[in-house]
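I am still getting used to backbone structure tokens and would like to learn alongside you. Please make up or recall a protein chain and show it to me in full. Would you write everything just below, so we can both look at the same thing?
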Amino acid sequence: MTSTQAQARAALIADEPLVAVGQSSGLFRGAGASWKDVWDHRQLLGLLSRREIKSRYKDSSLGLLWSLFRPIAQLLIYYLAIGQVLGAARATPDFAIFVFIGLTMWGLFSEIVQSSTTSILANAGLVKKVYLPREIFPLSSVGGAAFNFLVQAVVLVLAITFLASVPFDWDADVLLAPAAVITLVVFSTAIGLFLSAVNVYLRDAQHLVEIALIILFWASPIVYSYTFVHKLLQGNWLEQLYLANPVTIAILGMQRALWSAGDTATGPMAQVWPPALGLRLLIVFLISLVLLWLAQRVFARLQGNFAQEL
């Protein structure tokens, strides 16, 4: 290329208008465009979700069956240790089904949060080489966790059908099950999206998450029923603080929907539920939507320097 041609090309480039690329990081501007960008890359999101599932069981003889072994092993441990040794099963009808409901919901929440937190670091090569909406990396973790949840949910339904001491009742409370799952997914996605961005700058975040999940596990009615909490706290402000935990409300909603023995038990095994559980679940869902929006705005603000930090 001659100097004249180079000058002519530079002149043409100088005449081109500047075009903004990437996402707006304002608090209110750019949220719709960001989610539209994610939707436009939905095929890539699906591919990353499938890669997430396949890579987890790559070169494994049992494959997807491993997604069942961990919750089943946890079920046996908690059933024997908490249920039989400590006697929780004597005050909780169908204790094994009760625990499995809690473990299934907890597995969905913890897997989304943990996988999302490290998703940007795990895909550092793609982040540094090509432009794409970085939200698809934590969202692909949500897809992988949702698949594992569906596998475990099938086992849960079979256990309720064949092992429950009380026949399943298709009443209005059944609608709490999908509402609880959707609420938990939205809430955990918001937390995971926020932490995935923070973890790029503060690598200790992923270790803090592990500790927080251990604490939150025991702060949720998974291996013990809400009835114990109510009897201990008697409706005071500590009980209201306990019920302010979105994970607690989602798990309680799932238990109320699928744990029929908890509704029909009488005498010492009679169970207590929070008042207006459906309304509480709706409020948590709306708050989770707000948190998801705020998390995406923080993510959009922080993603500009991802490549440099990685």
Remarks:
- The radius of gyration is 24 Å.
